[in-house]
User: Fold SDR family NAD(P)-dependent oxidoreductase from Belnapia mucosa.
Amino acid sequence: MDLAGISAIVTGGGSGLGAATAEALAAAGARVVVMDLKREAVEAFATRISGAAATGDVADEAAVEAALDAAMALGPLRLAVNCAGIAPAARVAGRQGPHPLGLFEQVLRVNLTGSFNVLRLASARMAALDPLPTGERGLIVNTASIAAYEGQIGQCAYAASKAGVVGMTLPAARELARFGIRVMTIAPGLIETPMLAGMPEEAREALGRLPLFPNRLGRPAEVAALVLSIAANPLLNGETIRLDGALRLTPS
Assistant:
């Protein structure tokens, strides 16, 4: 898919993986709507990449519809990238008692329901577009995590939410294939994001030694580069790609 002149939406685009992806898409010629909860940050970033900002919860239908309207005002909506997510840690049966059920539901709401909400609403818009010469109408890229496969202690909610994202990838791709809409998922490993930046330096260095090669933390720009590669290759569909330097997480 040629990104020049299309419109795209990136959720969680105010920082980290989302910001890097939005920046890469804009550099490739796409007109990008960046959606995030943090209004000031997302508006400043959208201005910097000559895009548009949308504020709201990805699990809220009205908020996502408004963001998609903004994207379609910029051009044909051909690409949606789900990067919004949260990762609070809690043990199933910890010293403070059982895992709070509300926290589990919140993580699933943002990470899984939010991703599906964007997927269903964006794909409906894409299906109404004229096809490209290749027959393609659009692409949706979700973000999971290698925790979907090797969730660590304290990650039950997060791992379950990301496993759900992996699980819906193929059936969504099968269903949307008749419209020429592809669905892909990226499962990053340990990436240098604001979430990791808040950790002590010693802990960050220890994490950076875990991937086999390259023996370092991943970079948001490398996730963004994979999004561009997926867009460029129409044969990539219905699959989850691990981006982790051959890392396999241990229990803790």
In short: Residues 7-243 form a domain with the Rossmann fold fold (CATH 3.40.50.720). DSSP finds nine helices and nine strands in the chain. The radius of gyration is 18 Å.
